[in-house]
Amino acid sequence: MQKLKRYLTVVGTTGVLLAAAGCGSSEKPSTMPDMPHPASSSTGTQVMVTFAKDKAAFNYDKKLVPDGARALVAEYIQDNSTTITLSVHGLLPNRAYGAHAHAKPCGPVGDDAGAHFQHMPDPVKPSVNPAFANAQNEIWLDFTTDAQGNATVTRTVEWKFTDARAGSVVIHADPTQTAPGKAGTAGARAACVSASL
């Protein structure tokens, strides 16, 4: 098994990179959906993990995210924005999932990843207030798989990470809700990809 690869942060005028850590290759396999190419003035990284193989990947619900399924997380920083792409391969076909950047790295239990990462933290926990739990203050990556169980989603937020950084991307069992008192909730944590901080 390859040594665990670490994709650390790049700090300074280029901002901070959120990246996943995995034992798998950082190259895009031919069976994964195409990834966007960053502009020449941007910085970024992309890595792939395989569930039940890589130490940075946990699948808590093996029906929703089977062993051998893969996830590719990419982040590009340009000017004052952050673009994150999540590609998945081998999940259940024609199914909607929620997905978000979370504050802590993954662990054996889904709650190990902590709450959603928020650019402007909500002083009330858990955060279910749409003023804080929204797609502009958090990184929401909800997706619906195709007939083969594959999907790609890209989101851009108009901010960059500072000293506070996301620690993981969590795939949830349900799409993200937006109503007051439920904003940001998306059901059980089905899988998680850690970030190395």
Supply Rg: 15 Å
Strand order of the largest sheet: 2-9-8-5-6
Query: End-to-end distance, in Å?
Result: 22 Å
Order of helices and strands: EEEEEEEEE
| Oligomeric organization of the protein chains | single chain
Number of strands: 9
Total helical elements: 0
Strand content: 25-35%
Q: Tell me about the biggest sheet?
A: 5 strands, antiparallel
Question: Based on helices, strands and strand pairing, what is the structural class?
Answer: mainly beta
Low-confidence blocks of residues: 1-31, 33-41
Please give the share of residues in helix. Answer: under 10%
Shape: globular
Q: Can you give the mean pLDDT?
A: 81
Give the helices and strands, then pairings.
Elements: E1 43-50, E2 57-59, E3 70-78, E4 81-89, E5 96-102, E6 143-144, E7 151-157, E8 168-172, E9 189-194
Antiparallel strand pairs: 1-3, 2-9, 3-4, 4-7, 5-6, 5-8, 8-9
